Amino acid sequence: MADLSTNFLGIKSPNPFWLASAPPTDKAYNVERAFEAGWGGVVWKTLGEAGPPVVNVNGPRYGAIWGPDRRLLGLNNIELITDRDLEINLREIAEVKKRWPDRAMIVSIMVPCEEASWKAILPRVEDTGADGIELNFGCPHGMSERGMGAAVGQVPEYIQMVAEWCKQYCRLPVIVKLTPNITDVRYPARAAKAGGADAVSLINTISSIVSVDLDSFAPMPTIDGKGSHGGYCGPAVKPIALNMVAEIARDPETRGLPISGIGGVQTWRDAAEFIALGCGTVQVCTAAMTYGFKIVEEMTQGLSDWMDEKGYATIADFQGRAVPNVTDWQYLNLNYITKARIDQDLCIKCGRCHIACEDTSHQAITSMVDGVRHFEVMDDECVGCNLCVNVCPVDDCITMVEMTEGSDPRTGRPIDPDYANWTTHPNNPMAKQAAE
Amino acid sequence: MRGVLMTLSETSDVKANRLSSADYADNFSDIHPPLTPHEALVEADRCYFCYDAPCMTACPTSIDIPMFIRKIQAANPVGSAKTIFEENIMGGMCARVCPTETLCEEACVREIAEGKPVKIGLLQRYATDTFMEREQPHPFARAASTGKKVAVIGAGPAGLSCAHRLASLGHDVVVYEAREKAGGLNEYGIASYKTTNDFAQDEVDFILQIGGISIENGKALGRDVTLDQLTADFDAVFLGLGLPGVNALGLEGEDAAGVVDAVDFIGVLRQAEDLSQLEIGRRVVVIGGGMTAIDAAMQSKLLGAEDVTVVYRRGQEYMNASLYEQELAQTHGVVIRHWLMPSSLNVSGGVLTGITLEKTELDTGGKLVGTGELVTLDADQVFKAIGQTPDAGPLAGGSIELEKGRIRVGDGRRTSHPKVWAGGDCIAGGEDLTVVSVEDGKTAAESIHKALMA
């Protein structure tokens, strides 16, 4: 049995599956249920300043996109940080942590971008016995209009400044939660590191309008005829999250900075991918909000089964294994030649590969051969783009096969077994000339 | 007392009211309930939107199936129905009666891939039903009037399809129909549970909405109108005569009480206002192997017959009824027996008591022969479903070439007469399918249009 336990910034948890700061972690009742279900840790829903708490809308807070069988693919929310009194939250955090000492208890915080505000709340949080704090620099809606959340996360200088205050006024490990609503995620990550943050977590939700009601002509969710952009999450955002995680993991300036991965984790496999890109833990929200807390069983067991199958004893054994394989386009091997191959026994003759290639790509797949409906790749036209593989509805029917000898029928050039990339390509005006 | 008064005829048990009214309602409700909107969305998502889709090629009317399914998926069922109606104005009925398992769904790539084709028939029904339920305006506008007049004989699927296409092309159409109602087999010849709630008449009304079509009911060719007169009065004539006759067994006692034409039985049932008033035998034997035989057998069972047996003179592989329909009948308790042909009707006092059948086989030359071995089945009713026949009477002596009594047609469903086209079951080589008749009518209309506008 693989050991799923993690040690993230010295914070131990029995497995890498944490619940992200969100509605599922807003109060003791939910968090207790999560721990009973087996979650390794939680990031308590974001606390604001002492005093009257924020208020939420009383109309709908969520919008979504679905697959045809109402499978939820993307979720959008306009809920704010906790709307419960700070004192109640702090008391419950302390009580729950006491009852569940082996679980990670991180507290998310968002207060105005003023030193006094941070200085005031940090000791209170520390007193609960929590294991760490997460700085919410990510929420793209509501709070950002008040100069908090994403409004801070979009300005690297602010990130650094607040991180410094937190390190100064608090002994707990500091995780900076990053917003994806920026152009290059490496800059906020570098700022977090420069401010002394112990880790980053990402991504927070993406600014979004999920749909427009074509009768009322208002965005969904609609509150009395109006709508506001929300934060998008769920399976649809995972590819964006993976890329941002990879950018930070391989950036020379932030390499080695611990990362807690967030964004569309639905199954053990998603988690394994985030961990392979360097994450030490993953945070989950939408999957739990869709199916309830029980899904963590599938996640922990699936990860454990896969690790057993692959011979990984601990999370560390495969953590970051994919990072060295993420590179810039210019370093991809241009001498690597592949051609699509259609397995005629598996082909059901839907013709999607043909029409995709014919209409939109390289005219490299037949539709009719000798008067018979037949789909076959013409190697002399195939550029190896993989579109046919992606549109084929049959598993493994079309595969990309590497050419290792002879010549490429498309270009007529002999297959070159040596690696060569764009940086040295003759068509590249910036090509580095080999030394004479 | 019973012993004293009993006559042989009283051994026959044919009566009405075999079931409770709830059972009648249940048995004759929609046999394949329509998809709910959510089910339709899920099913539509299974369609791969194939290139040059095999389902479309397999459809006799060439409906753009991937496109209509995609429109369902895109929450546009009304637009989906328009796509269907463009090629098949009877898309609603065809969705109910087409043997899809041997047409579009057999060709579906998911049938090949996993033995579970996209439920094209049910999706087509979802789209067309939604269109009808939402009481949409007629989806087609008529072209400017051409001033041409066309006569259509027969308001069945072929005739109505032809009339609709002609009307949309700007011609004026008069349809002559021998029976009281339009619809042909849709109205008189299809099992009730396949087309509930008077759908056939709703569809006729929908088709007529285009305008320019008038139907003259109770006007039969040869009796009330003649082909000579029509070809003189109209610019063109389309014959969609169907198959008004039925084959006889050629056995003694065929006129006995209890020996019934299955087509008549089905027609009476379709027109019945109160099913409980329909008499049905306790033991029913149906002779034949086509859809009519299966429909008659199924409905006998549903009317409360205890034992229903279909007997067919050849093996199952020769039966015209689709395998799907056969199995449906069997799951409803109908017994299907093969390699049996009628030998004699057992009649007593003018009333049927049973039927004796002879076992059959193929001889070495492949010819069907009796083996001499006899089987007798007690029966209160025997339904004859051994094929329908054309009635060439009204065409006799004319210039319309026939082939085994059916009308010979060429390209565009043109007959040998320059002003006459034909389609549906009455033409040689017809497939006796509603959808094929619709295609015949449509093709003929296009050909007539071309000829008239030349």
Overall helicity of chain A = 25-40%
Distance between the termini of chain B: 80 Å
The helix-and-strand class of chain A reads: alpha/beta
Most residues in contact, chain pair and counts: A-B, 15 and 17 residues
Number of folding domains of chain B?
3
Number of helices of chain A: 12
Mean pLDDT of chain A: 96
Give Rg of chain A in angstroms.
25 Å
User: Which strands sit side by side, in order, in the main sheet of chain A?
Assistant: 3-4-7-8-9-10-15-16
Mean pLDDT of chain B: 94
Q: Which ranges of chain B are low-confidence, i.e. pLDDT below 50, for 5 or more consecutive residues?
A: 1-9
> What is the helix content of chain B?
25-40%
Q: Numbering strands along the chain, what is their spatial order in the largest sheet of chain B?
A: 4-3-2-5-19
Percent of sequence in beta strands of chain A: 15-25%
Note the main sheet of chain A: 8 strands, parallel, barrel
Q: Structural class of the helices, strands and pairings of chain B?
A: alpha/beta
- Tally of DSSP β-strands of chain B: 19
Low-confidence stretches of chain A: none
Topology:
The complex is a heterodimer of chains A (436) and B (454).
Chain A lengths: L5 E3 L2 E3 L3 E3 L8 H10 L3 E7 L14 E5 L5 E6 L8 H14 L4 E6 L5 H12 L5 E5 L13 H4 L2 H14 L4 E4 L8 H9 L4 E4 L3 E3 L2 E3 L4 E3 L9 E4 L4 H13 L8 E4 L5 H9 L4 E4 L1 H6 L3 H16 L27 E5 L9 H9 L7 E2 L2 E2 L13 H5 L6 E5 L34
Parallel strand pairs in A: 3-4, 3-16, 4-7, 7-8, 8-9, 9-10, 10-15, 15-16
Antiparallel strand pairs in A: 1-2, 5-6, 6-14, 11-14, 12-13, 17-20, 18-19
Chain B lengths: L1 H4 L8 E2 L5 H7 L9 H8 L9 H5 L6 H9 L3 H11 L3 H7 L6 H4 L1 H6 L5 H14 L15 E5 L3 H12 L3 E6 L7 H4 L10 H10 L4 E5 L9 H7 L2 E4 L5 E2 L12 E3 H10 L8 E2 L1 E5 L3 H12 L4 E5 L11 H9 L3 E3 L2 E9 L2 E12 L5 E11 L2 E4 L3 E2 L12 E2 L2 E2 L12 E3 L11 H20 L1
Parallel strand pairs in B: 2-3, 2-5, 3-4, 5-19, 7-15, 9-10, 9-15, 10-11
Antiparallel strand pairs in B: 1-8, 6-16, 12-13, 13-14, 17-18
Helix pairs in contact in B: 3-5, 5-6, 5-10, 6-10, 7-10, 11-18, 15-16, 16-17
